[in-house]
Amino acid sequence: MSEVLTTRVAGNIGIVEIASPPVNALSTAVRAAVIEGLRVHNADDAVAAIVILCAGRTFFAGADIAEFDHLPIKQPDFDALMTTAESSPKPVVAAIHGTALGGGFELALACNYRVAVPSAKVGFPEVHLGLLPGAGGTQRLPRLIGTGAALDLILSGKPVPAAKAAEMGVVDLLAEEGKLEETAIAFAQDVAAKGAPWPKVRDRAVAGGLDEIEAIKAKHKRQFKGFKAPGHIVQALEAAVTLPFEEGLRREQELFGELLISRESAAQRHVFFAQRLTAKVPDIGKDVPILPIRKVGVIGAGTMGGGITMNFLQAGVPVTLVEMKQEALDRGIATIRKNYERTAAKGRMTMEQVDKLMSLIDPVLSLDALADVDLVVEAVFEEISIKKDIFGQLDGICREGAILASNTSFLDLDDIASATSRPEWVVGMHFFSPANVMPLLEVVRGAKTGKEVIATVMKLAGTIRKTPVLAGVCHGFIANRIMEHLIVQSQQMVLEGVPLRTIDKVMNDYGFAMGPIAMLDLIGLDVLVHGASGRTLMGDFVAAGRRGQKTGKGFYDYDADRKATLSDEAAKIIGDFATYTGIAPDPGQSEENIRQRLLYPVVNEGAKCLEEGIALRASDIDVAAILGYNWPVFTGGPMFWGDTIGAATLLQGLKDLEGRYGSAFTPAALVQKLATEGGRFVNR
Ligand code: T1G
What tens digit of pLDDT does each residue of 106-144 get? Predict the structure, then answer.
């Protein structure tokens, strides 16, 4: 009997219990165990019905995703598992707690009945892995809830709470929390007593036709750009409508097979594990204490300070919000309330909840109010002298053991820490704008930052629903540092006369929802000109009142619907600045040249971050680019993408670019090394 399997009999009910932490993933061993458990009980005359359940935090959370990197899928495969469950001579009940996802939900659909506790969820997240439900889910689900609803659920990838699933007819019975097993056993006894035949989802007719599919496709239109899986999911649902069950299954498996070997799915699976790896810091073990963060101070109620504050409020952590002037404080508070009221207007929270969150803010005009907080996050103007002054004051005000964090995005954290007598308590918490929306948090480790401070902040990121990426101290840390090349090179090409639309199109084709020029206008040209010395292109735009989307004009002109059009005034500003800088015109660059010029230096800079230990691992850089700059997830991020083109190709490309455009493209030593050895950036 396999280690993960326990079989027992309660009355006349056979229990198949699986224990394979952390999430009972349906690995080869687990699939074999379930099949074995079903075989044992089907062979036992004392058993009238079978209940499948899992120990630990959840029912099967799907296939073991790591196994998809080692194809072919070993026997017994998913079809063998589903067929065993579905063809069981005795009724089979799935007892669901936690998250029955992917193959776990498919197994439940292959059972005759599903019992769940209200806290449970069911769903198909495969689309997030560049896959589709490949174990019968696309054929069985539409038979239970109809074609349109099934396609909607599978394309959304979102889990559905058990109560909703019961309304939809997916879950047959809701058990009381904590009473899942006994309820499932009683239910199994009932159905056994009622006698055969017991319902099989496969025998039901598919409700709804191809017309429903068109409507749902339209609803998820944006999802289809660049992603391979959504189109395959639609084809699988079309097969469910047009083909008999068995043929539909075979069509599903063909489509699944195509996705499984696709570059997109490999990239998205890489990102799945990469996101779960960022919080692991090699020299910080589980023995390092995590400090309690019960009260937070935020300095600065501007755009960043306000967004940062909202993260803590939503996590139920009270915030003392500090500003220098009353009107700035009032403005900051009003913006936070407006944001929440907008969310309430969309029905995503009640006004009572808005008031509750707002009541967690203590607005003050003095740093002295921060004497008893556990953490301070400073989000003031990006000026080193101002930040050092504030940290010097905090050193005299904050209690011992309080964490002092700066939201600086470019400045030297060690220099800021040197303004205190406790640099070991100083850390960077670099949020991305809008701070209450963007999921990335760069945790900047200073030369003296203590281990418990890092451990605490990395954990805290999860509490405020951010993904932490650890970064060393350098200009721009990880995300800004690597992406700066894309911004600089796009401006350079603009000055060489390359059409704005072409530059943006090349990045749209690569997968960015927004091209670099349009992104500059969204960020705001005045934000980007900050700190620059001498005459700059951005400065000329700002001087002409063209600060980007917020002024309805930047590189592009914008109408009321934010639709971008080309501008003669912008073209003149660009032309004048190009003349001023004496940049040689080179308007006819090929799209491939533009793509390499924008992307290769980003990968190259990522390699330097690895060489310098600024980033712990290549996959962290991928997560930072994807969550901080919306780098297209189906490429896996810059470093994973770098591996798909290969270090040798990257090296040659960089050398060619260096020859034409200079040292910004000088290959990093790591690129040279990997090109020589045939190595990869991402090693998992
Ligand atoms: N396979 C392998 N490892 C998994 C895993 C999985 N399906 N799910 C989680 N892990 C690991 C994860 O890497 C981490 O490891 C630990 O478990 C805890 O996860 C045939 C094709 C279930 C909601 O996509 O969404 O079925 O870092 O930190 O926040 O049609 O994990 O500790 O070493 O995320 O509590 C479909 C993926 C697969 C679900 C729990 N299933 N998992 O969240 O913990 S494809 C999924 C999740 C499939 C079939 C198809 C979440 C969770 P480590 P965690 P969590």
Answer: 999 999 999 999 999 999 999 999 999 999 999 999 999
Peptide bond into 22 cis (omega under 30): yes
User: pTM score, two decimals?
Assistant: 0.96
User: 12-58 pLDDT, tens per residue?
Assistant: 999 999 999 999 999 999 999 999 999 999 999 999 999 999 999 99
Q: Are the C-beta atoms of residues 553 and 567 closer than 8 Å to each other?
A: yes
Contact 377, 298 (CB under 8 A): yes
Determine the Cα–Cα distance for residues 669 and 29; give it in Å rounded to an integer. Answer: 43
- Asked if residue 638 has a cis previous peptide bond (ω within 30° of 0), the answer is no
pLDDT band at 221 (very low <50, low <70, confident <90, very high): confident
- The full DSSP string for 436-448 is TT--EEEEEE-TT
Closest CA to 83 of 202, 223, 196: 202
> CB–CB of 250/214 below 8 Å?
no
The DSSP letter of residue 348 is S
Q: Give the tens place of pLDDT for each residue, 443-472.
A: 999 999 999 999 999 999 999 999 999 999
Residue 220 pLDDT > 90, yes or no? no
172 phi and psi angles, rounded to 5 deg: -85, -30
Task: Output the pLDDT for position 552.
Answer: 95
Residue from 619, 680, 607 nearest 644 by CA: 680
CB 602 within 8 A of CB 486: yes
Report the mean per-residue pLDDT for the chain: 96
pLDDT at 267: 98
Report pLDDT for 664: 97
What is the whole-number distance in angstroms between the Cα of residue 441 and the centre of ligand 1? Answer: 22
The amino acid at residue 388 is K
3-state secondary structure 81-140: HHHHHHCCCCCEEEEECCEEECHHHHHHHHCCEEEECCCCEEECHHHHHCCCCCCCHHHH
Query: 493, 672 in Cβ contact below 8 A?
Result: no
Contacting residues for 239 by C-beta, under 8 A, at least 6 apart:
138, 139, 247, 248, 251, 252
Write down the catalytic residue from 126, 238, 323, 378: 126
* 80 vs 98: CA distance, rounded Å: 25
CB burial of residue 417 (10 Å; 0-12, 13-18, 19+) = buried
Rg (the chain; Cα; Å): 28
Helices assigned H by DSSP within 261-285: 263-277
How many angstroms does the Cα of residue 64 sit away from the middle of ligand 1? 8
Give the H or E element holding residue 361: strand 361-364
Residue whose Cα lies nearest atom 34 of ligand 1: it is 276
Q: Is 106 a catalytic residue?
A: yes
Distance 264 CA to ligand 1 centre (A): 18
Q: Are 615 and 471 in contact (CB under 8 A)?
A: yes
Ligand 1 neighbours (beta carbon < 6 A): 22-23, 25, 61-66, 78, 99, 101-103, 106, 125-126, 129, 131, 133-135, 137, 273, 276
